[in-house]
């Protein structure tokens, strides 16, 4: 069970890393998308951080649902519903099976895939989230999980986008890192730094 203090630290770490990398996310999204990913993510995680006290006072599962709801309302674009689904499903799953984090993460990533009608290998955030879910299931260390996430981001460079706005570019999407994959890895690293 994640404590209230850990939840608050987690929210602060997530918003801090998104803010610190907002310009980088915007640059990545400008290359193969519409250049709004940094601003969208910052707006969403700033909004979550603005309610850090109220959210972290809730039980873990309810706090995760509250983060998901806030992200859906504030991030916008394609990422809002997807990151919202990730956190909402984590909260729902932990309500049903407290403390089964690997299963909750796996189901949450599956829910993101269903929401985005996407799959692993299509140059999206799923290219990071699935390897991370597998690493968590395999009980890898935090450092290994973070390394898996960053390697997975690098692997999106050579992929052609199949889903999302970048897919309109076809082969021209090859050679660029996916911004959603990058933001997912940043969130993974922030979580690993707190828990
Ligand atoms: Mg965009």
From TrEMBL:
Pfam families in alphabetical order: Dak2
Signal sequence range: 1-22
PROSITE patterns from the UniProt entry: DHAL
Gene Ontology cellular component annotations, sorted alphabetically: cytosol
Gene3D superfamilies: 1.25.40.340
UniProt GO molecular function: glycerone kinase activity
The UniProt record lists the keyword Kinase: yes
Annotated SUPFAM superfamilies: DhaL-like
Keyword field: Kinase, Signal, Transferase
A biological process term (GO) from this entry: glycerol catabolic process
Domain DhaL: 5-193
Cited NCBIfam families: dha_L_ycgS
PANTHER family: TRIOKINASE/FMN CYCLASE, TRIOKINASE_FMN CYCLASE
Protein name (Swiss-Prot/TrEMBL): Dihydroxyacetone kinase subunit L
Species this protein is from: Devosia nanyangense
Classification of source organism: Bacteria, Pseudomonadati, Pseudomonadota, Alphaproteobacteria, Hyphomicrobiales
């Amino acid at each position: 069970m994640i404590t209230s203090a850990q939840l608050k630290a987690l929210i602060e770490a997530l918003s801090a890393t998104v803010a610190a990398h907002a310009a980088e996310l915007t640059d990545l999204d400008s290359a193969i998308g519409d250049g709004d990913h940094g601003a969208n993510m910052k707006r969403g995680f700033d909004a979550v951080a603005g309610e850090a006290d109220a959210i972290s006072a809730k039980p873990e599962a309810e706090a995760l649902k509250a983060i998901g709801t806030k992200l859906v309302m504030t991030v916008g674009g394609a990422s809002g519903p997807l990151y919202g689904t990730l956190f909402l499903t984590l909260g729902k799953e932990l309500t049903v099976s407290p403390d089964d984090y690997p299963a909750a993460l796996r189901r949450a990533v599956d829910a993101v895939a269903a929401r985005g009608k996407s799959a692993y290998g299509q140059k999206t955030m799923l290219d990071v989230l699935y390897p991370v879910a597998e690493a968590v299931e395999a009980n890898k260390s935090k450092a290994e999980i973070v390394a898996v996430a960053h390697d997975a981001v690098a692997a999106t460079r050579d992929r052609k986008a199949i889903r999302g706005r970048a897919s309109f570019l076809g082969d021209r999407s090859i050679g660029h890192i996916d911004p959603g994959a990058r933001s997912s890895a940043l969130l993974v690293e922030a979580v690993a730094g707190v828990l």
